[in-house]
Amino acid sequence: MSAHGPGHARWYIERFRRLAAEGADLAGEARFVDALVAPGGRILDAGCGTGRVGAELFRRGHAVVGADVDEELVAAARADHPGATWVHADLATLDAAALGWPEPFDAAVLAGNVMPYLAPDTEAEVLRRVGLAVRPDGVLAVGFGLDRGYSLAAFDVDLRSAGLRLEHRFATWDLRPWTRQAGFAVSVLRRHAGRHPGPLSR
Fold this sequence. Notes:
Shape: globular
Structural class: alpha/beta
CATH superfamily: Vaccinia Virus protein VP39
Number of domains: 1
CATH architecture: 3-Layer(aba) Sandwich
Number of helices: 7
């Protein structure tokens, strides 16, 4: 679930189509994730939006599935970025196996401020479900701005509740060092060794 208002999807689609047409560098998150996985990895673009991150990862040779709750954004991803798989799915109820993805992903990425835009009180459940979709030694890369109503302290509580641990944190997708004065956080997460985040609730 998300907290986007009416008209947000159309604005978002047009914004990123315009930036792409202008030659803007929109691949920073994809470069980051590409460095975390082996060539030809299986990657979940969770909250994929218009597909810009997953599309670049697909271009780099990875098998990509993008999932988003907004059907208009998913339709734009399918139109603009054929090749990868784009599906309509709510991350708060995500069940990868039920959607036909029985093999675990090597990594998942939640970029573009996915976390602050989730419906309130679903953040830990989203992290748990995305974590379940990734193999136990795989990674989750999560980035979001810290001025959008969802604090880093709350995120750290939620990731622990989801059975994940923080492995690295940066201030940007291009690996600038994390400081408490940073306005953005990029976190690399893994599951706690020997800990399973629990079965999916129905």
